[in-house]
Amino acid sequence: MSSRIPREGLRSLYRGREVRLWLREVMEYADEGLKRRGRLDGGGEDERQYLEGVWETIEGGKSPSDVLLEKYRGDWGGDLGKVYEEVRYGG
Fold first, then answer.
1. The whole model's pTM is what?
2. Distance in angstroms (rounded) separating the CA atoms of residues 86 and 91
3. Whole-angstrom Cα distance, residue 50 to residue 84?
4. Are 25 and 18 in contact (CB under 8 A)?
């Protein structure tokens, strides 16, 4: 399994299921655990808010690198500089 993931990403198969589906199952446990933990921030939200980006990735079926590759091969016309602009940290 592990040798396929860098090439196939979330679509890789493990025991006949996409890795994305395995991740969804793990995330459901994490989500429930954080809900039960009940730690709220000043706005009344629990820690599940920090899982939102991971949920979006799983449900969308594309890893962040998949999204970057699509842009690189598409709209960015192979301009590697655009990749660096997209992922740089800070201003």
1. 0.74
2. 11
3. 25
4. no
Q: Where are the domains of the chain?
A: 1-60, 62-91
SS3 45: coil
Residue 21 in this model has a pLDDT that exceeds 60:
yes
Residue 53 has a CB neighbour count (10 Å cut-off) of 10
Whether the per-residue pLDDT at 70 is higher than 60: the answer is: yes
Q: Which residues pair with 81 in a beta bridge?
A: none
Average pLDDT, the chain: 91
Q: Tokens in use for 7?
A: 């090439």
Which residues, at least 6 apart from 49, have a Cβ–Cβ distance to it below 8 Å?
41
